[in-house]
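> call design_seq(struct)
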């Protein structure tokens, strides 16, 4: 029996060696590409705290496929000292207080109910609003989640623990993020979210800023004008949209928006290409403000490209 087992191991080892030699000397391109594709990691967007204390959009590796498992995975990544701490990019940090447990969750008809343990309320006072922003923006990146309700020890969270600020019954991106206020009056206010860029070493990432103003200009115009202007009040935020790039016209449709610019939108007039950072800053801003799924870019009414905002 032992002799047969030894022979079997020798034969298997020899076959494995022969296969490795064949691959080495006669590599099959399709096989190699398939292997590379197989090991490629899938990432998902998540909103963590960056080194400047903004709630910022970055990404982590996704290991789950079932939606409830993905939700749990995101919550763990957002939790200080969580099991996915090693997955968090350098110079970013989690925000849900350490020791917080997700007791249960329920997702039905686009409404996600999250029930946390009492440690959830241990958030530092300066982060209590950012805590909600991080959860809302991370989880509503999942297409099936439209609104969120938060419970602590089975009790509905109705106010922020320190400021006492009232929380809407259901939470979505209209809650805003990294808010700035430029108000003349508390009446007739308008919220517009604009995505800027920031830099972490050689890594660029997006930082959404919700402007709360009395401006009654159409929000698409506010977004473009904001990205064309130097964000003086946010000196470490960047926009690559040129000041000379003018929005000529636009059309708002049910799930998409079509924009027409002059030639200064293009990175290169000969290639008819829009710089990635420009189109994604515009696209993400329009997605969060209008809840559209597509943006079409035109130059002088000539079609250039359409981007699917659900795949950014």
């Amino acid at each position: 029996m032992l002799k047969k087992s030894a022979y079997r191991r020798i034969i298997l080892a020899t076959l494995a060696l022969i296969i490795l030699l064949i691959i080495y000397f006669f590599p099959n391109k399709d096989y190699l590409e398939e292997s590379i594709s197989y090991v490629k990691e899938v990432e998902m967007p998540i909103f963590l705290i960056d080194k400047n204390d903004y709630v910022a959009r970055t990404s982590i590796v996704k290991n789950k496929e079932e939606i409830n498992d993905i939700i749990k995975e995101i919550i763990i990544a957002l939790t200080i000292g969580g099991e996915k701490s090693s997955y968090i990019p350098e110079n970013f940090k989690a925000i849900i207080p350490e020791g917080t447990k997700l007791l249960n969750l329920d997702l039905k008809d686009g409404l996600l109910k999250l029930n946390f343990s009492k440690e959830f309320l241990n958030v530092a006072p300066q982060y209590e609003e950012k805590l909600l922003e991080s959860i809302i923006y991370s989880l509503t990146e999942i297409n099936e989640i439209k609104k969120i309700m938060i419970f602590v020890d089975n009790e509905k969270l109705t106010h922020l623990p320190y400021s006492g600020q009232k929380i809407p019954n259901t939470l979505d991106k209209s809650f805003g993020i990294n808010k700035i206020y430029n108000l003349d009056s508390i009446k007739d206010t308008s919220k517009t979210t604009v995505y800027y860029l920031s830099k972490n070493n050689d890594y660029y990432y997006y930082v959404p800023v919700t402007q709360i103003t009395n401006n009654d200009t159409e929000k698409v115009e506010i977004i473009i004008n904001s990205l064309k202007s130097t964000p003086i009040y946010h000196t470490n935020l960047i926009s690559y949209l040129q000041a000379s790039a003018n929005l000529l016209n636009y059309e708002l449709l049910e799930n998409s928006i079509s924009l027409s610019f002059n030639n200064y939108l293009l990175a290169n007039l000969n290639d008819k290409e829009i710089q990635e950072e420009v189109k994604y800053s515009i696209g993400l801003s329009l997605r969060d403000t209008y809840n559209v799924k597509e943006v079409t870019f035109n130059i002088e009414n000539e079609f250039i490209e359409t981007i699917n905002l659900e795949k950014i």
